[in-house]
Amino acid sequence: MKKIIVTGGAGFIGSNFVRYVVKNYPEVHVTVLDKLTYAGNRANLAELPENRVKLIVGDITDTNLVDSLVKNTDAVVHYAAESHNDNSLKDPLPFVQTNLIGTYTLIEACRKYDVRFHHVSTDEVYGDLPLREDLPGEGVGEKFTDKTPYNPSSPYSSTKAGSDLLVRAWVRSFGLRATISNCSNNYGPYQHIEKFIPRQITNILSDIRPKLYGEGKNVRDWIHTNDHSSGVWRILTKGRIGETYLIGANGEKDNKTVVELILELMGEDKSGYDHVDDRAGHDLRYAIDSTKLREELGWIPQFTDFREGLQATIKWYQENRAWWEADKTLVEEIYVKSGQ
Ligand code: NAD
Ligand code: TDX
Questions:
Q1: How far apart (Å, rounded) are the C-alpha atoms in residues 29 and 12?
Q2: CA dihedral angle for residue 142, residue 182, residue 220, residue 333, rounded to 10 degrees
Q3: 243 catalytically annotated
Q4: pLDDT of 137 strictly over 70
Q5: 260 catalytically annotated
Q6: What is the mean pLDDT of the segment spanning 184-211?
């Protein structure tokens, strides 16, 4: 695999994957196809060698552009998406366009030119699990596997679920050489400040109190984005065609615990946050069983110390104020308008 296209490669997780490939696989050339929406940022690819990474600013729903790029590549790794649940509740249309029509456009081109396709998806396609405290027995709690039925809750997760199903159908009906990964909540540097962890860090850095939706009992299964990237590379290069692999690193934590840890690591009083309106349809708990990826493909996550990873992430936002500061006022205005 010498030439790959990374869609959404100027976003949070896509750019981490591009850096991972540039660092570890010197023989691979990366073309990033990214629309540079509010979530995409050229700066995420700064300092990468021009002979290794080329940025094409364009839309994955643009059939002619996609066709001309896919024709000349060995593989497409598909990260581009509208990715924020709260935005999908306010205006679902861009989610339908990019996540469904965009994925359709890419897999049609890959089918035409018999190009390998990897689809990056989310654990949210499975809906949510009960909180552990509501399950019978100490420590008992099911997790998502690739056999869990789809049951998405939000416009975001339903469009991701729909895009997964398109890929599965293209594998079966047209022999598309594709794999799918469903990963849990990522954290790390370069994450847009609309998302939970960077919002709270940059709130504290801006003298705004962190904001917790509802009681804060909801659980997310946190994984460092570096581990997501190594998982995707492993599946792209070693995964079985037509298979779905779940990526997760046993990082379940409730939101209240995470906010309190951020406050503690930033030297603040642990109770210094506000409860705000809950998210409509808010999923209770996500938890990934990644046994298949670990046992079949030998993947092992490396960045599993959450406290250490969070401390490093805080340091990154402290040291890169220019990266986020210009967006802060608008992001908070949008949240305040919806009581969050
Ligand atoms: P992000 O919002 O930070 O980045 C998305 C990128 O896609 C941006 O650079 C944006 O400009 C680009 N994009 C959006 N619409 C486009 C279009 N029509 N054409 C071309 N480019 C377009 O998102 P992220 O958090 O980095 O997520 C990346 C992928 O990983 C998504 O597919 C998401 O569903 C998936 N995922 C995210 C998480 C998470 O915790 N953030 C977890 C599991 C899976
Ligand atoms: O200010 C906040 N306060 C708060 O309590 C924000 C922004 C969020 N939350 C809660 C909602 C969630 O329970 O924190 C949790 C995490 O929220 P988000 O960062 O918005 O992530 P989530 O909705 O869980 O979805 C993320 O993980 C799965 C990504 O945004 C998706 O793209 C991915 O598919």
A1: 20
A2: -150
A3: no
A4: no
A5: no
A6: 98
Average pLDDT, integer, range 102-122? 99
Name the catalytic one among 156, 190, 286, 317. Answer: 156
pTM exceeding the 0.85 threshold for the entire prediction: yes
List 34, 59, 82, 123, catalytic entry: 123
Please report, rounded to a whole number, the percentage of residues in the chain having pLDDT higher than 90.
Answer: 96
pLDDT of residue 192: 98
pLDDT in tens, 205-222: 999 999 999 999 999 999
Q: How far apart are the first and last CA of the chain?
A: 45
Can you name the CATH fold of 3-192+222-253+285-312?
A: Rossmann fold (3.40.50)
Cβ neighbors of 136 (< 8 A, separation 6 or more) are none
Atom of ligand 1 nearest to the CA of 13: 26
Q: Where are the domains of the chain?
A: 3-192+222-253+285-312
